[in-house]
Amino acid sequence: MNTLVRWALVAVAAVGLGIDAYTHLDLASLYDGNKTSTVSQGTLFRIEAVFAILVGIALIVRANLMTALAVVAVAGGGLFLLLLYRYVSVGKIGPLPDMSEPLWYAEKSWCAWGEGIALGAALLLAGDRFRSARTSRRTRTARASRAAA
């Protein structure tokens, strides 16, 4: 994958994470009332937003396999939970409040699109970085074998 495409994927993933972070921060105060004795849904939204921001910055600073996989974890995990709580009535789990919400609205849709786009771009980046790491490892091994012979 050439450098321009790689940086375009980094930009797309960062924008997707930015949408994710913005929507979670914007909606957090509306969900502060949904809470258990341990944590509120609003707090969980803020935590998701912070992770999205930190992982997005890490990806921009150093686009490698580990940061791409971190984006996959944050965006993929967020999208999974969004869809799970949309389509399944999970209920309260331990210290987590019941976050089931069986409806779509504009910001929720934006968040799902942002997470999905970030996930797709990060999977492409991770695949490219993994392939590059394997190729360079094979090249080093071949050189070492030739040098030893």
Question: What brief labels describe this structure?
Answer:
mainly alpha; 149 residues; elongated; 76% helix
Structural class: mainly alpha
What value does the Rg take, in angstroms?
Answer: 19 Å
Runs in which pLDDT lies below 50 for 5 or more consecutive residues are none
Task: Please tell me what the overall shape is.
Answer: elongated
Strand content: under 5%
Number of helices: 4
**Number of strand elements:** 0
Briefly say what this structure is:
With about 150 residues, the chain is mostly helical.
Blueprint of the fold:
Elements: H1 3-28, H2 41-61, H3 65-87, H4 106-148
What does this protein structure show overall?
By secondary structure, the protein is mainly α. It is 76% helix and 0% strand. It contains four helices and no strands. It has helices spanning 3-28, 41-61, 65-87, 106-148. Helix 1 packs antiparallel against helix 4 and helix 3 packs antiparallel against helix 4. The radius of gyration is 19 Å and the shape is elongated. The model has no long low-confidence stretch (mean pLDDT 92).
